[in-house]
Design goal:
The chain is of the alpha/beta class and 242 residues long. The protein contains ten helices and eight strands. Strands 1-2-3-4-5-6-7-8 form an eight-stranded parallel beta barrel, surrounded by five helices. Helix 1 runs parallel beside helix 2 (48-55). The longest helix is centred in the middle third of the chain and has 13 residues, at 107-119. It is globular.
Length: 242
């Protein structure tokens, strides 16, 4: 049985005070959320402790936005899995398109981060997706296949989440049609050894389109960007109706 996971990615937003305010306003939305849905908040490093403390055992899991592939060392600006675990982190985003585009992550370094996350007992959320140029050139399947195969080399597929995030739909307000997102996620699933891996859709997920997306048979959850910053919006997404 594939787990339904709704994760918020706050990117570089919110102070610790703003994090605690969010938690106080968001938790009431979970009162009637079905128990089979896992809720995750992937927040900036500086907010992890505040989030972990503020949840007070609530059903929200704490997630980070990146992890280094070494346990320690001279890696200024990076963070280790052990450091994350100490703060109560359970999930970590790996290979987000912004990390690939702006900070030099490659398929090789993404794979190293994935492997290290699992070594540290964290569940990685592997992000894959194509650009508008690649999609227009008919290269979607080729790009996705390459990212999945390279990213999952030596990775345990029993502790893994994958997020299909078409780059052209991230922060643009443009959403991949639900049927097309379902098709591409089906392609991803066909590349896996474990059919029970949770595969999310990410890319301008909003309260207005989450029901249609989650009604698709291959889509097991969502990785939510901007809409996860507002307690009401994220609450509606977590409580999607199918």
């Amino acid at each position: 049985m594939r787990k339904i996971i709704i994760a918020g990615n706050w990117k570089m937003y919110k102070t610790q005070a703003e994090t605690l305010d969010f938690v106080n306003r968001f938790l009431p939305h979970l009162k009637d959320t079905p128990n089979d849905r896992e809720v995750v908040l992937c927040v900036p490093f500086t907010d992890l402790n505040a989030l972990s403390q503020g949840l007070h055992g609530a059903r929200v899991q704490v997630g980070a936005q990146n992890i280094h592939w070494e346990s320690e060392g001279a890696y200024t600006g990076e963070i280790s899995g052990q450091m994350l675990r100490e703060l109560g982190v359970r999930y970590v985003i790996v290979g987000h398109s912004e990390r690939r585009q702006y900070f030099g992550d490659t398929d090789q370094t993404v794979n190293l981060r994935l492997v290290q996350a699992q070594r540290c007992g964290l569940t990685p959320i592997l992000c894959v997706g194509e650009t508008k140029q690649q999609r227009d050139a008919g290269e979607t399947e080729t790009v996705i296949t390459h990212q999945v195969e390279k990213g999952l080399t030596g990775v345990d597929q029993t502790h893994l989440v994958i997020a299909y995030e078409p780059i052209w739909a991230i922060g643009t307000g443009e959403t991949c049609e639900a049927e097309e997102a379902n098709r591409v996620i089906g392609v991803i699933r066909g590349l896996l050894k474990n059919p029970e891996v949770t595969i999310q859709y990410g890319g301008s997920v909003k309260p207005g389109n989450v029901d249609e997306l989650m009604a698709q048979p291959e889509i097991d959850g969502a990785l939510v960007g901007g809409a996860s910053l507002e307690p009401g919006d994220f609450g509606q997404i977590v409580n999607f109706q199918v």
